[in-house]
């Protein structure tokens, strides 16, 4: 994904699964790479708040959504837990932000997608006829249509 400044972010999954060895990298506009996060099992759910003050990411295998403050230059501060999921709730996969600053997450193995307030409170949930939704994004002429991808 990209932030509001056009900087490119890419995350990895730590395939062996023996510890949290995945990375979230950023490629700045001058093509300089930078490690943003390094102690996750599998990066996912990248989204930026409309006010450009927060970056959201999820660590899918560990069932955690994080939020990280961004300074005026877009540099990340100290990451904090935004929401942690218990067994049976699904795990956070792909995500998007809406214009109100709410974070929408596809909950893999959870049969649902959920919308969270900027403080992490679940505001809405939409049950799905599939077990594993994988990504949500907004589109359409008015950007009010929610598109959802799933696994087979």
Percent helix:
under 10%
Structural class: mainly beta
Q: Got a strand count?
A: 13
Low-confidence stretches are none
Strand arrangement, major sheet: 4-5-6-7
Description of the structure:
There is one protein chain. The chain has 152 residues and is an all-beta fold. The mean pLDDT is 95. The strands form 4 sheets. Strands 4-5-6-7 form a 4-stranded antiparallel beta sheet, with no helix packed on it. It has a 4-stranded antiparallel beta sheet with strand order 8-9-10-11, with no helix packed on it. Strands 1-2-3 form a 3-stranded antiparallel beta sheet, with no helix packed on it. Strand 5 and strand 6 form a beta hairpin. It has strands at 8-11, 22-27, 33-40, 43-48, 54-59, 64-69, 80-84, 91-97, 103-108, 112-116, 122-127, 133-139, 145-150. It contains no helices and 13 strands.
Please give a quick description of this structure:
The protein has 152 residues and is an all-beta fold. The protein is 0% helix and 51% strand. The chain contains no helices and 13 strands.
């Amino acid at each position: 994904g990209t932030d509001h400044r056009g900087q490119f972010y890419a995350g990895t999954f730590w395939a062996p699964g023996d510890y949290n060895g995945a990375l979230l990298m950023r490629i700045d506009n001058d093509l300089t790479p930078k490690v943003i996060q390094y102690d996750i099992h599998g990066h996912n759910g990248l989204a930026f708040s409309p006010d450009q003050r927060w970056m959201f990411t999820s660590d899918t295998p560990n069932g955690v959504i994080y939020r990280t403050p961004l300074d005026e230059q877009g540099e990340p501060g100290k990451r904090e837990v935004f929401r942690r999921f218990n067994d049976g709730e699904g795990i956070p996969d792909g995500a998007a932000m809406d214009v109100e600053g709410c974070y929408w997450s596809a909950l893999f193995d959870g049969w649902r997608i959920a919308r969270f307030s900027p403080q992490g409170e679940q505001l809405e949930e939409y049950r799905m006829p599939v077990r594993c939704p994988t990504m949500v994004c907004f589109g359409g002429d008015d950007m009010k249509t929610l598109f959802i991808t799933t696994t087979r």
